[in-house]
Amino acid sequence: xxxxxxxxxxxxxxxxxxxxxxxxxxxxxxxxxxxxxxxxxxxxxxxxxxxxxxxxxxxxxxxxxxxxxxxxxxxxxxxxxxxxxxxxxxxxxxxxxxxxxxxxxxxxxxxxxxxxxxxxxxxxxxxxxxxxxxxxxxxxxxxxxxxxxxxxxxxxxxxxxxxxxxxxxxxxxxxxxxxxxxxxxxxxxxxxxxxxxxxxxxxxxxxxxxxxxxxxxxxxxxxxxx
Length: 226
Known about the structure:
The protein is α+β, with helices and mostly antiparallel strands. It has helices at residues 18-26, 48-56, 114-117, 193-225, and strands spanning 6-8, 10-12, 29-35, 42-47, 62-66, 69-80, 87-95, 101-110, 121-124, 128-133, 142-145, 153-156, 168-169, 176-181. Helices cover 24% and strands 36% of the residues. The strands form 3 sheets. It has a 7-stranded mixed sheet. It has a 4-stranded mixed sheet with strand order 11-8-10-13, with no helix packed on it.
């Protein structure tokens, strides 16, 4: 579980609009909006380099300081440049440490299934799982042990559990998580005697045709000499 949060340094933006936004980007910052439940959103700016460092930390909840008080936020929406794919705008949403929130975290398969040892192929159908938990208790990932999976078997969300009672799984229990299937074998199509005879017949017909053309050509040559 995450015991600490990556701290984002933010600054408030007094002016909004295209000119102001361009000026913020020229300064190496990304214009953003911080949303509060029941309050007016605040226009902020974040240093681009520090933001990318925070995103690489694999954390989903970040700590910011606003009005001299620590707040916890998570990314609500990201806008990318259509050509460079750089982040050009972010929406953040504040979360309260005392209130549970809904968030998606990575779902990781661990172990070596029996079915794979027997030659089967393991396919993971779901990479993220939706959970409800407190912002101070967000798991980095949820692991699923697949050691006992046999050939031609599957597991679903119903087979996923967590050791933390405060973490509630919200994804539907019927959603498939992983499957082990036997490798496909390509069967060779036998060639029948009829097919062989047909191919020989076509070749023979071509050869006789060529011979006939040669004979005709020879006769015509002699007639022209006469």
